[in-house]
Specification:
Its main location: mitochondrion. The protein is built from 4 helices and no strands. The chain is mainly α and 180 residues long. The chain folds into 2 domains: 46 residues; 132 residues. It is rod-shaped and about 140 Å long. It starts with 6 loop residues before the first helix and ends with a helix.
């Protein structure tokens, strides 16, 4: 071990200040032992470059695993949303088809009744118009609700994705600061 001070000069300095040669040498010897013990303790706490590289590789493999998990989660969330959107579209098409069928039935009934009673036809037309406007309002309301729900799901997915990305970046920066 290299010492970063001159032990002989320290012995001479102690002798100048009233210590004997033997006392000075014992004091300097004790200081050297204390310094060596402190250096040994410091070296035990230090890591080598190889150990640091191994730890860095372990952290990087953990980060890669987290990235894979995030990709899998992201894909499963998007596929779930797609399937839900498809179900909603099918339901909407069925509702529209039912409405069209109902409208067709009501119009056919009205045409038959037109020949029987003219006065009753006017009343039926007004009732039919009310039913159509209510149905249209219901359809418009349902479509607007579905659009709102889809937008909220999109925003939730964007939030989760952004949160996940920032979490990964924070973890990576935290590990990076720990090792630097």
């Amino acid at each position: 071990r290299r010492l970063y001070f001159d032990t002989h000069a320290l012995v001479c300095l102690l002798e100048k200040n009233g210590f004997t040669t033997q006392q000075s040498e014992v004091i300097v010897s004790a200081l050297v032992k204390i310094m060596n013990t402190n250096l040994d303790m410091i070296y035990k706490d230090m890591v080598t470059k190889a150990e640091q590289e191994i730890a860095l590789q372990q952290v990087m493999s953990h980060i890669a695993g987290v990235k894979k998990d995030m990709i899998i989660l992201e894909k499963s969330e998007f596929s779930a949303l797609r399937s839900e959107n498809e179900k909603i579209k099918l339901e909407l098409q069925q509702i529209k088809k039912q409405v069209v069928d109902e409208i067709t039935k009501v119009r056919a009934d009205n045409k038959l009744n037109l020949n029987l009673e003219k006065s009753r036809v006017k009343e039926l037309h007004s009732q039919q118009d009310r039913a159509l406007t209510q149905t249209d309002r219901k359809i418009d309301t349902e479509v607007a609700d579905l659009k709102t729900m889809l937008e909220s799901h999109k925003l939730d997915n964007i939030k989760y994705l952004a949160g996940s990305v920032f979490t990964c970046l924070t973890v990576a920066l935290g590990f990076y600061r720990l090792w630097i």
